[in-house]
């Protein structure tokens, strides 16, 4: 029995596919198939069966795969423990983030890389669902997304953690008549045209907004910040989003744009947070990064 065989059965169980497992493990399909066959022969039982849902574990297979998770986790603990004895922290961190709040923690990412040059970082911008899919298929280690109840209910087999509480605000040009208001009613926005970040949370939020207050005139959604801010200079155009997504933008700091609190009763709690695979143990690189990020964000 080899660790590679255990990694194979874990990946097949996660993805429900030998092909996807081979892709995630960067080995051939035949290598995955042979590895599982050899392990089944050694154990004297069948670990998987094919169904309309894909390749799924047998009852015996589920018990073996659970043990395999524990073994791989202990091996990772051993590697991390050995790494702790070295003078420098090392490892790999594949990070994916939604675009909106990136400016909020861009300086933290730079500081982290300078403090831990031996940790190899790969950072990408993606939508929330794409980040979650990449977590499931082991393409990224850690995602930074917006956490809200609807998302958490749909993804019970992932681990989430809160970093920073946020609230919905409206952002307008300082030349807009709305800029003089401290708060604004949702009904007052129905005469405006909306542009906003193309994110799963904002799409869900605007669907709820329209169900409650009426149809909104949505001009476009995009992840291009410049396009959003250029649009705001036009008459009767607003953007809507979470306060921390806008707070570090130069246009806000220079007061070229103004944030206005949205006056809604009993707003649902929403947070900037992290997401990762539930069954994986925190690597040392992940632990250090989350501690650093959480500490710095709480100072803002």
TrEMBL record:
What are the GO MF terms of this UniProt record?
A: DNA binding; DNA-binding transcription factor activity
Cellular component GO terms, alphabetically?
cytosol
Q: Which UniProt keywords apply?
A: DNA-binding, Transcription, Transcription regulation
**Where does the HTH lysR-type domain start and stop, copy by copy?**
1-58
Q: Does the keyword Transcription regulation apply?
A: yes
Domain of life assignment: Bacteria
Q: Which SUPFAM superfamilies match?
A: Periplasmic binding protein-like II, Winged helix' DNA-binding domain
Q: Which Pfam family would be a valid example here? A: LysR_substrate
Q: Which family does it belong to?
A: Belongs to the LysR transcriptional regulatory family.
Protein name as annotated = LysR family transcriptional regulator
Q: Which organism is it from?
A: Shimazuella alba
